[in-house]
Fold this sequence. Notes:
Layout: E1 5-11, E2 28-29, E3 32-33, H1 34-45, E4 50-55, E5 72-76, H2 81-91, E6 99-102, H3 112-124, E7 129-134, E8 139-142, E9 148-152, E10 158-167, H4 168-180, H5 188-193, E11 200-203, H6 216-230
Parallel strand pairs: 1-4, 1-6, 4-5, 7-11
Antiparallel strand pairs: 2-3, 6-10, 7-10, 8-9
Helix pairs in contact: 1-3
Amino acid sequence: MKNPLWLIVPAAGQGRRMAAAKPKQYLALGEKPIMRHTLERLHAAFPEAHLVLCLDPDDQWFDPGWVPFVRWQRVDGGSERMDSVMQALAAIPAEPDDLVMVHDVARPCVSVADLGLLLSHMQTHPAGALLAMPVADTMKRADDSGASGATEPRDGLWHALTPQGFRFELLCRALDQARANQLTVTDEASAVEALGQYPRLVSGRRDNLKVTHPDDLALANAILAAQQRNS
């Protein structure tokens, strides 16, 4: 690889929508916590990468034995995703053209093939790239009462997934400007878009599930089992 690859995994969230006794990244999928599955999947694709794991300073569940990477470091996460990513960027000695990939810790089912495809687009597209999925369902916009107020055309609409990847300098500049302008960004691509740049949408598999709600655990277990059978 021409430029080093840095993997940032924000994992400081509390996952309150899961209504569990501990953050969702520590809930079990089979015999392993979600975090371990996610890190192992990233390592399978990029064993030589540098991992930066963002954790709550008071985290009491993390086990360093789950990390398969030789090169890795822990940094304190922030109250919001953007804070964690910015603290990770500030902690690494990256060069401006180094590649940085940010991945949700709660996406343990991302495929190794999709990870490799994303990297190839990151290397060639100056505005970076993200895994995404074309919208397949009819999209409704609710009115103030919660009723279906309008049907939105789905042409050109995509679900943003992760990982999302950019050059180090571009991502730092985008997040710095977003903070300066008090923009609320829920993913890194939206910060880059605010600079007037257009990241590449890379069509990814539909089984790249983000575990968010309690019933997602059973679905993630089924997906991992099916991927294992088909590997």
